[in-house]
Amino acid sequence: MEEIPKKVELKETENADFFSYEGTLPEFLKEKQEIRGTDRGTLYHRVLELLPLTRKPQRDTIKAELDELVCRGRLKPEERREISVAKLFTFYQSPVAQRMCAAGEQGKLYQEQPFVFALPAREVLKKESDEPILIQGIIDVFFEEEDGLVVLDYKTDYVPENPAETLKARYGEQLALYQRAVEEITGGRVKEKILYSFYLGQEIVV
């Protein structure tokens, strides 16, 4: 009988995102372990945290800010070459980025927020057990608007066929966990869950 772990942990390192549990995981958890393309995904996460969030910056501004990160040693030259100014520019023009900016101006934007809470094993690992498992991870973004909270997760997956539906199916459970975490952290209500696909250059409501 496979042992039920006490904790499932999502970690972000310079090389990949992964869950520490090595047993049989749901697909959306395994994705973090198996896709080594998350090197680039982790890099985009870091850059989005480091760059100032301003309303609709120009391409030249984004390029200059990335180059400044290299000069300050916050980004390696080879990492800089992996970042697409065009993709960042498209993101900053998006409706969700503008909503983030508005929330940030009011002090209601939260990025890279750690969380930990317990769920029964049957919910996380689909096992016939109510033994509690600690779920630990980091939420890319959540922000508060007048009528509720919004959770946002960045994705860089290459998805050539039915990309929007594929991403929703792949990460729907993950965002549901993030919703529960945010509601526990804040005591508020999550009204909307969004994936932003850098491959598609668009946001996907889940």
Topology:
Elements: E1 7-12, E2 17-19, H1 27-34, H2 38-50, H3 59-71, H4 77-80, H5 85-93, H6 95-105, E3 109-120, H7 121-124, E4 132-145, E5 148-155, H8 163-186, E6 190-197, E7 202-205
Give an overview of the whole structure:
Strands 1, 2, 3, 4, 5, 6 and 7 form a 7-stranded mixed β-sheet that branches. The chain is globular, with a radius of gyration of 17 Å. Helix 1 packs across helix 8 (163-186). The termini are far apart. The protein has helices at residues 27-34, 38-50, 59-71, 77-80, 85-93, 95-105, 121-124, 163-186; strands spanning 7-12, 17-19, 109-120, 132-145, 148-155, 190-197, 202-205. Residues 11-25 and 30-36 have low confidence and may be disordered. It has 206 residues and is α/β, with parallel strands linked by helices. It has 8 helices and 7 strands; from the N terminus they run ββααααααβαββαββ.
Offer a concise description of the structure:
The chain has about 210 residues and is an alpha/beta fold. It has helices at about 25-35, 40-50, 60-70, 75-80, 85-95, 95-105, 120-125, 165-185; strands at about 5-10, 15-20, 110-120, 130-145, 150-155, 190-195, 200-205.
What's the overall average pLDDT, rounded? 82
Measured as a percent range, the helix fraction is 40-55%
Question: The biggest beta sheet, please?
Answer: 7 strands, mixed
The portion of residues forming beta strands comes to 25-35%
- So what's the overall shape? globular
Count helical runs.
8
Strand segment count: 7
Alpha-beta classification = alpha/beta
H and E order? EEHHHHHHEHEEHEE
Whole-number radius of gyration? 17 Å
